[in-house]
Structures are given as structure tokens and as C-alpha cells.
Design goal:
Largest sheet: 7 strands, parallel
Order of helices and strands: EHEEEHEHEHEH
CATH class: Alpha Beta
Helix content: 40-55%
Radius of gyration: 18 Å
Distance between the termini: 60 Å
Strand order of the largest sheet: 3-2-1-4-5-6-7
Structural class: alpha/beta
CATH topology: Rossmann fold
Shape: globular
Strand content: 5-15%
Number of domains: 1
CATH architecture: 3-Layer(aba) Sandwich
CATH superfamily: NAD(P)-binding Rossmann-like Domain
Length: 250
């Protein structure tokens, strides 16, 4: 039975879409958001979503494929918060096909969806709509630490640095039409990481709780170094980007 909704939940009445909805974290995020009064859309590559296996299934499904992100534009135009949570962790011997697949799923598709969602946010802003759109990107702790998977680490670092670059640009422009949040998550148990230390349900609860307060970085990790190191790295990236922009703008 669904718990009582909080009248003060900022997610109540919002429309939220989550990629990687069939994964461990995706399923628990769906459950938590619905219990907080949100309308939740699951974005999935799989036609066999098996809603019966969910404690609480999403209100709707959207099927999509990496490389066809533009087809999602009209389908997510009314979404308030888009959460990019899909990923691929190579486990076999590394070759060009594996590397290209990891780049496409972990980096390029995320970047394309950020671009598409920003265009939708700009359109809303031009129509003088009051609410900003939000996009949350799960770059994971692998953005700054080893994950015993070099290709996974490289692709996560790439999208992490691109998100930092985009955040720096929004800060410099003092733009508020798009809110970016970066999820820095420690190893949780999932198909991608069966040896994960964290319970994905607890991770989902902490993400939503922290998102009520945190403006940008949402860190959930058993490693205390991450809480110190990640904000420092992020600050350096943003300051560096703004410094370069000032040089070239003269």
C-alpha cells in the first residue's frame, strides 16, 4: 500500500521521466517518485518491461533506442524532470565494438538528450512559462574513481565533464530555464554491478531526499572521500571553463 503523500513534497503533481527504468535504481526511483505524488514515465529499450515485477509501476512507458534520441522530443515535451539513468558496463574483452557501444550509451546518448531537453526548456521559457525544467544525469562515482572497468570509467568521465561544461555555461549566462543536477552514486547492487555495496532502494530514497535541498551535486556514496573530492573537482572544472571563456571573449 502506498504511504501517505507529503503535502510539502516538491515532486507532487510533476511529470517525471526516467531512462534505465527497468534497472534496479530506475525501478526504485519510480516507486519513490510515485509515493511523492509525481506522474512517472518509464523510458526503456526493452519491449518486455514486465510491469508486474514492479512494487509500483510507472504511469506510462516510452520505448526508445540510443541513436534515435530526436524521436523523443515530442514525447518528452511536457516532462518537468528528465532523469538520465541508463548505462552500459562492458564485462567482456574490450574491442572497438564494445568501446563504441559504451560511448554511445554512457556518453553520446546522454549528451544528445541534454541538448534536446534544453531546446524544450528554451521553448517553454520563450512562452513565458514560470516553471524551469530539470535534468538529472547519473554520471556515477566512476566519473572520478576507479570502477574496475576502464571503458566504463572513461565514458562516465566524458559525460561528467560535458555536464560540468554545460553547468558552467548556464552559470555564466545566469540562466534559470534549465536546472541541472548531477548524481554521483557509489556502487549499488544491479545487473551492471552485481557486487555493488549499496542497496538501490536506499540509494533511490537518498537521491530524492537530497534533491529537495541540493542545487547541483547529489552524492550518495559509502566513500567519504567522494564527498570532499567531487565538489572540489567540480569547482575547478567550472572555474577553469569560466576563465577560458573570459580569455576568448576579450
Amino acid at each position: 500500500m502506498t504511504k501517505n503523500l507529503s503535502d510539502h513534497s516538491r515532486f507532487k503533481g510533476l511529470k517525471i521521466a526516467i531512462t534505465g527504468a527497468n534497472g534496479s535504481l530506475g525501478r526504485f526511483l519510480i516507486k519513490e517518485f510515485k509515493q511523492n505524488g509525481a506522474y512517472v514515465v518509464g523510458l526503456t529499450h526493452s519491449k518486455k518491461n514486465s510491469s508486474q515485477s514492479y512494487d509500483i509501476a510507472p504511469d506510462d512507458w516510452i520505448y526508445w533506442s540510443c541513436g534515435e534520441e530526436k524521436l523523443l522530443s515530442s514525447k518528452i515535451s511536457d516532462i518537468d524532470i528528465l532523469i538520465l539513468n541508463h548505462g552500459f558496463n562492458p564485462k567482456e574483452d574490450i574491442d572497438y565494438n564494445v568501446i563504441n557501444k559504451a560511448l554511445e550509451i554512457n556518453s553520446l546518448s546522454h549528451w544528445k538528450l541534454i541538448e534536446i531537453f534544453e531546446e524544450l526548456a528554451l521553448r517553454e521559457n520563450d512562452l513565458n512559462r514560470c516553471n524551469s525544467k530539470e535534468i538529472w544525469i547519473n554520471t556515477s562515482e566512476a566519473e572520478i574513481q576507479i570502477a574496475f572497468s576502464p571503458v566504463y570509467e572513461i565514458t562516465k568521465r566524458l559525460i561528467g565533464e560535458l555536464v560540468s561544461l554545460k553547468k558552467s555555461k548556464l552559470i555564466a549566462e545566469k540562466s534559470n530555464y534549465l536546472v541541472i543536477k548531477k548524481l554521483i552514486l557509489g556502487p549499488f547492487k544491479s545487473k551492471l554491478n552485481p557486487q555493488g555495496l549499496l542497496n538501490p532502494e536506499i540509494v533511490a530514497k537518498k537521491i530524492i531526499k537530497k534533491a529537495e535541498k541540493e542545487d547541483y551535486l547529489i552524492i550518495v556514496s559509502p566513500n567519504p572521500i567522494t564527498y570532499l573530492f567531487m565538489p572540489f573537482i567540480e569547482c575547478i572544472r567550472i572555474l577553469y571553463s569560466r576563465f577560458i571563456n573570459k580569455i576568448y571573449s576579450k
